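In response to the reviewer comment on reproducibility (Comment 2.3), we provide here a single inverse folding case reported in full, input and output, so that an independent group could reproduce the run without further information from us. The structure tokens appear first.
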């Protein structure tokens, strides 16, 4: 039995009967009105949830493509080791497109951090592959051995301007594997809280009037 039928019979039990054992016209009219209102609200709620999930998926895809394509392209054409503070600038670039989400509504900070970390993960994991596709000679087997299998091999220097930190294979691997659960938890917690806030709002009577994720009501 579908959910709609279950709701129908639950509401049917509440129908008031007259002394003759038959429901009064007033009771029937009220029952029909209440049932239709409830079904309308449920339909609006389902449309709202669908729109919410669609927009959330859009942000995940946007962040992934941003890190995979744009950041990797910039990271490959700029010789970062020759520019003071390059990796500090690169870190800012990870989060820059998503900062507006937190500026407009501070409770979106989990979304901003999660999307920024996702972009950084796409950069670190697919840098070698994108470099190879761009025509640079790259040993992908060696690249992924160093990036994904911990070892004591020095792979590059993290240029933060006044400070330069040597990055070893084990540190990069730890960073990559550590970011995955952090990203999942941040986005999961944000989605749960944002969905609750979203559904607690009064549903608009105007069709397709769905608030956007970046507005303050989320």
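Designed residues, in position order:
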């Amino acid at each position: 039995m579908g959910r709609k039928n279950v709701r129908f019979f639950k509401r049917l039990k509440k129908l008031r009967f007259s002394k003759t054992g038959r429901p009064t016209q007033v009771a029937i009219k009220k029952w029909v009105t209440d049932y239709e209102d409830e079904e309308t609200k449920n339909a609006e709620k389902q449309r709202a949830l669908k729109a919410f999930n669609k927009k959330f998926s859009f942000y995940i895809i946007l962040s992934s493509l941003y890190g995979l394509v744009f950041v990797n392209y910039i990271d490959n054409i700029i010789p970062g080791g020759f520019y003071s503070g390059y990796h500090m600038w690169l870190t800012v670039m990870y989060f820059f497109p998503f900062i507006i989400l937190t500026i407009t509504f501070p409770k979106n900070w989990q979304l901003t951090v999660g999307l920024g970390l996702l972009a950084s993960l796409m950069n670190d994991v697919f840098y070698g592959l994108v470099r190879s596709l761009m025509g640079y000679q790259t040993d992908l087997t060696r690249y992924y051995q160093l990036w994904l299998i911990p070892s004591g091999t020095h792979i590059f220097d993290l240029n933060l301007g006044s400070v330069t930190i040597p990055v070893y294979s084990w540190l990069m691997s730890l960073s990559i594997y550590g970011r995955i659960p952090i990203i999942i938890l941040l986005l999961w917690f944000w989605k749960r809280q944002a969905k609750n806030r979203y559904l607690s709002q009064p549903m608009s009577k105007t069709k397709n009037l769905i608030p956007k994720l970046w507005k303050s009501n989320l």
